Design the sequence.
């Protein structure tokens, strides 16, 4: 629980940072889970700072704080890429822990279709950077999006958030399934 409180405090700190040029708010829902994610762009750079919190009614909570660099060389490119890392904290009824995951995200605007894009992310933390009850952690998502407005996209996706716990043969699934959401840029 202490680890989860630390991650939540860090998320609030990241969300309150000034010097940003804009960002996005991403809200997704499934039948038994919800996720809220905030991303901000650092002024004058390709640096992105993000925070997320995911709640599952039965399986626990997963929080993350991230730092990424984004390719800003070609602003009109249909491919948008970011690489970096996220510090994760999670709490379930029986386990809690933290991990440092490396990975990235992408969005590909399909040129032949007006407003449709493919997006996703993946982060992996092996045992060497996993703490508490954690042996490893994987957080991934793939989605198809439709731009309702230039600054708002609705989507359907599949998320897989799981933790391999020390000396337990079965992974703890924090989320595994279909979700729907809205992402708003500002």
Sequence:
């Amino acid at each position: 629980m202490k680890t989860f409180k630390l991650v939540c405090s860090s998320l609030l700190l990241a969300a309150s940072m000034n010097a940003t040029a804009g960002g996005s708010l991403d809200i997704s829902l499934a039948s038994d889970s919800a996720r809220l994610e905030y991303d901000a762009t650092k002024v004058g750079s390709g640096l992105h700072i993000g925070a997320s919190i995911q709640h599952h009614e039965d399986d626990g909570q997963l929080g993350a704080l991230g730092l990424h660099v984004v390719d800003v060389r070609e602003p009109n490119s249909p491919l948008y890429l970011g690489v970096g890392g996220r510090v994760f904290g999670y709490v379930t009824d029986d386990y809690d822990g933290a991990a440092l995951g490396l990975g990235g995200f992408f969005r590909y605007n399909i040129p032949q279709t007006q407003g449709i894009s493919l997006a996703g992310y993946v982060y992996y933390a092996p045992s060497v950077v996993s703490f508490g009850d954690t042996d490893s952690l994987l957080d991934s998502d793939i989605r198809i999006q439709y731009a309702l407005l230039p600054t708002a996209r609705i989507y359907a996706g599949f998320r897989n958030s799981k933790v391999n716990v020390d000396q337990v043969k079965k992974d703890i699934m924090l989320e595994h399934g279909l979700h729907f959401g809205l992402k708003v840029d500002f």
Remarks:
- DSSP finds one helix and eleven strands in the chain.
- The two ends are 33 Å apart (CA to CA).
- The longest helix spans residues 2-15.
